[in-house]
Every structure is written in C-alpha cells, then in structure tokens.
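In the previous lecture we treated proteins in isolation. Real proteins rarely work alone, and many bind small molecules. This record shows how such a complex is specified: first the sequence, then the SMILES for pyridoxal-5'-phosphate.
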Amino acid sequence: VTSREDAAALDAADPLAPLRARFELDEGDRIYVDGNSLGRLPLTARERIAQLVDDWAERLVTAWPDWIEAPSRVGDLLAGACLGAPPGTVLVADSTTVNLYKLAAAALAARPARRVLVTDAGEFPTDRYVLQGLGEVRLLESDPVHGPDATDVVAACAPGDVALVCLSLVSYRSGALADAHAITRAAQDGGAFMLWDLSHAAGAVEVELEAVGAELAVGCTYKYLNGGPGAPAFLYVRRDLQDELRSPIQGWFGQRDQFAMGAGYEPEDGIARFGAGTPPMLGLAAVEAAVELVGEAGIARIRAKAAALTDLAVALGDERLAPLGFELGSPRKAVLRGAHVSFRHRDAWRICQALIARANVVPDFRGPDSIRFGLPPLYTRFVDVWDAVDRTATLVAAGEHHDFPAELARVT
Ligand SMILES: *Cc1c(COP(=O)(O)O)cnc(C)c1O
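The predicted 3D structure, ligand included, written as tokens:
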C-alpha cells in the first residue's frame, strides 16, 4: 500500500520541486488537478502582463516596432523549449481551432486530387468539426484507451484519396501518447500530409517535430504551457513546405511588405505567411514568460516527472479507486501516456461535481464516463496526487456524489 509518506519522499527527491514556488498557489487546501484545461498562473506571466499594460499606457502606438515580432519570437522560443523544431518554423497566433483550419485548408489546396481528411472518432470535437467543414472526413475507430496506431492510418489511407491525417499526439480523454514516428510515416506513405495537434502534448512530453518529419502541427498554450485563458495558440509548418502552402486567411499580417499597403495579397516568405491579423500582445506577453519557465525546467525533466506522477496515480487508483467501481481509462505504461490520467466510473459526472463542491479537489469530467486528473509537472506535487485520490476514495465510499444531479452543466 502506498502511503502519504511515500509520496512525500518522491517530492523530496524531485528536481523540479522548487519551480512550484514560481506559480500563484492556493491559500487553502484546494487540490488543483485540472492544469490540462487551464494551467496555473506563473508569477513572471503576471509581471510581464503588468509591464505590457504599462507599455500600452505610456508608449501607445510607438511600442509596435517592439511588439510586432512577438509571434515569431515566442514561436522560436517554444520551438526550442519543447517542440523539437528549428527556428523559423513556429508561429504563436490565433486559436488552435483557427490554426487547424488554416493548415488543414492549406494542405487540401496543395493536394487537389485528394478530398478526404482522416481523423479519429474520439478526437477532440473542435478538430472534427473544423475538418468536417473542409471536406469529406474519414473517422478511425481506434481503441478508446490506447488511441490510434499506424495500422489504423495505413488502412484509412489505402484508397489513395486522403489529403491530410490529423490526430492528437496526446489524447484529451485517455491521455494516450501516440507513436508519432510510425503514424507520420503511415500518413506520408499513404500520400497524405500529417498534422499533429499538440494541445495536450506541448509542455507535457518531449515532442520531436523535426525528427518525426511531420509536415504540420498546431496546439494550445493555455494547458501545460500555462499561457493563460484564451492565450494565443501555435502552429508549425515544416520549413521546406512554407513557400508552397498558403493560408486560406489572406490577412495583412501574412502579407509581404505589410506596410506598403499594396493592392493585392502576396504571401510573405517563411512561417510569417501563416499569420492573419494583429497579434494579441497581452496574451503573447504571458505565453513568453510561461514558455521561458518550461525552457528553464527542461522538457526531459518535465516528461520524466509526468511519468512518475501518472505512475503514482495509476498505482493509487488500483489500490483505492478500483474497489469503488473505477476503471483506469488511460494506458498502464508510462511511456504510452502524457501527463494526465483518466478514471472511468458510471457516476463520473456526479463524482466530479462532488469533488469540487465537497472535497476541494478540482479535476474535470469528459463524457461519457471519465474523470481526468491532470498532473502538470511544473507545479504538481506527489502528495497532491495522493491527496486527490484519497479524497476521491473517501467521498465515493461515503456516497456523497449521490447528492449531485446527473444532468450535465454548461461547462464541464
Ligand atoms: C484544448 C484543445 C483544443 C482547443 O482549441 P481552442 O481553439 O483553443 O478552443 C483543440 N484541440 C485539442 C486536441 C485540444 O485538446
């Protein structure tokens, strides 16, 4: 049996433990295990936003020469800190949804003889919806716990009509980590572009975009990267394709000689052409500070701690939650997981509400039956995992979740 002292010993040996103090923390005894939906506030992000507000107040429009390069500057920072991508291949802009639209549309336009877009039936909704709006979608029916594999992708591409395969590297529901090399090769051998959605991977696991050779990627900055609510997302386009692909949004921030205010649209060279409109500077200021913290920690250490935190959650789940009707909804092997663990239970939604209202534990619910425990390594302690499971077991054993409604709320 794993004791709280065992968890405390892991904290004592944790090289990332000091970084927790670099975040805004809870006053009370709240256990926050939903950093995979919205990461905590880094203290430097608060400072950097305040500084940006001062710049706005004092310098007004004269600050733009210093601001205008932020999307590519922060993109380069992110590329080096945790995406395994070279400078000049990542841009921080727009939302993940909009970036996905831009890159998927560009891929379709570059493969005019192919009309099919492949994704997984269990893929994050916005990804499926965006692709449905662009063309015919072919859905993989992969294993709900382990996610898609290369065999699924080979079969989907076999008819020779696929322009793009779009999948999450880490599944938002189960936390399964896909085999980036094998799936990318399967898509490319099938004549399709590979687009990875890194929303639950960036800042949680080592991503090797250049080594993997994928053409395209997008992802969020407000989950494991801690960039703040609605922070601008990122997009990646492999360097050799940048001058061939075109954004369907012909905005002036993707225009060559932008301030020449020319008559017609002509895309800029390089990654800048995938920009659209004026960059959100407040959001970018926070993302820059947050990504610096990831770089300081080192993605290899972050990944190692994610494996250890989720291993502890799985072990405690077996000991304390399985006897109460929970089932592990994530892969058992740490190398096959990101930084969150899902537990399935028929009363998952009621349990989730009860945890927040009665036990001061904040996970989240993902239908139909999963409770996610997100364990961002920069600020999650091993004792937090122990306490979260302990409070969950105590609450469910007492039947407290029966006091909560089964009907879903507007936000889960
Ligand atoms: C969180 C997430 C998104 C969110 O997209 P937004 O445009 O920021 O709302 C998209 N895709 C995946 C896979 C996600 O996990």
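Summary for your notes: DSSP finds 13 helices and 13 strands in the chain. The chain has a mean pLDDT of 97.
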